[in-house]
Amino acid sequence: MLYAMSTVLILAETEAEEGSNIGLVLPDPYELVAGIIAFAIVFFFVWKWAFPAINRSLESRQQAISGQLKEAETAKLEAQSLLDDYRAQLATAKSEADRIVEEARAQGDAVRADLVSKSEAEASQIVAKARVDAANEKARALQEARQEVADLSIDLAEKVVGENLDRAAQHGLIERYLADLERMA
Amino acid sequence: MFEQVILASECDVANEVICAPADVKELFELPTVFHIGQLAVSRTMILIFLAAFIVVALLYFGLRKGSVIPSKFQAVIESLVQFVRKDVAEDIIGPEGVRYAPYLTAMFLFLLVGNLFEITPLINFPITARMAIPAFLAIVTYVIFVFVGFHKNGFRYLTDIIWPKAVPLALRWLVGIIELFSTFILRPLTLAVRLFANLVAGHLMLTLLLGSGVIFIWNFAEAGAKSLVGVAWFAFGLGIFLFEIVVAVLQAYIFTLLSAVYIQSSVHPEH
Q1: Which of A53, B115, B136, B159 could form a disulfide with B248 if both were Cys (CB 3.0 to 4.6 A apart)?
Q2: CA of A101 vs chain B CAs: smallest distance (Å)
Q3: In a 3-state reduction of DSSP, which class is residue A85?
Q4: Could you give the residue ranges of the DSSP H alpha helices within chain A?
């Protein structure tokens, strides 16, 4: 086939040299050979060098991108877990604070109740003591009044009778009388 | 560049409205630069190797470091390669497209640089405006898709084209003939001619318009008021220049895309 083709070409070439323009639309054999060699160089360079080279760089780019995506994913997960941690800590802190406030309130209440009860007890003690004191004073005053009345009665009776009376006997008498009066009253 | 010199030496600005060489071949058959023994090395051959060298250099310097965070240059080269690999090879052919990706990528980059030579200052000649490279790549694509078709489907590859079961019986033979003709004859031919013709047309337009423009303006003493025509040609040429950037990229893409589509139709012929 190639032989037939080159024959045609050579024929065309001779024809062209004779002044016809058919040579313009037929391939020039020398240019054909040059074109075949030149294209073969390009083809083998593309096939054996350029494609492997571009494949390598595309692959490394793909790896770099997927590596970066993975890194980003890990970073995101890390950030998420950190956020969760912080949220949990915050929640704990808040409940702790609530608990402390609640405790303080309870303590305050207890202290107040304690104080109130103590002061109530003290007050009632004071009142009771005052009451006892008053009663004692009253009894003493009564006793003194009774003594005074007896003495006055004896003095009066001595003045009336004109002589000294047996004080002890008279005291007993008056005491009895006053006791009777108290009983009657 | 050289073509403009040819134009300048031949153009009669006083009597012509546009400069054109006596023989259009002079715009496409570039002169020999040096000899290696008996072998005459033309400027086109040098440009063919320069295109290969540029593609290899771009790939080498773009992908050499393979940094995880790419430089702008690395990103551009990577996205060019990935564009052919993913958006053309794998998206069109499917998972099996990986096997053809080196061929399609090499094809796209080589054609892209070769086409862009059309508008590269000081080069100004697309190597694809010569039939050699379009024909060679079209034949390689043809061999691949015919081979893959038979390899994957056996003889059914051929019978499914000649006798398409999806078509109503009355039309089947007709569609079969058309498909046979289209698959085995038109496909490689149109693939090569589309690229070749687009760049021939582009190169012709640019050379004639910009060349004439420069010559008419330069020789205003001789051309007189006609040098205004040169201004018009030059402005028009600049418009075409911008348009040809798009054509250069698009034709490289279309050639690669169609190669992928043809291979796909052999890998999965039922679609």
Answers
A1: B115
A2: 60
A3: helix
A4: 2-17, 29-45, 51-161, 167-184
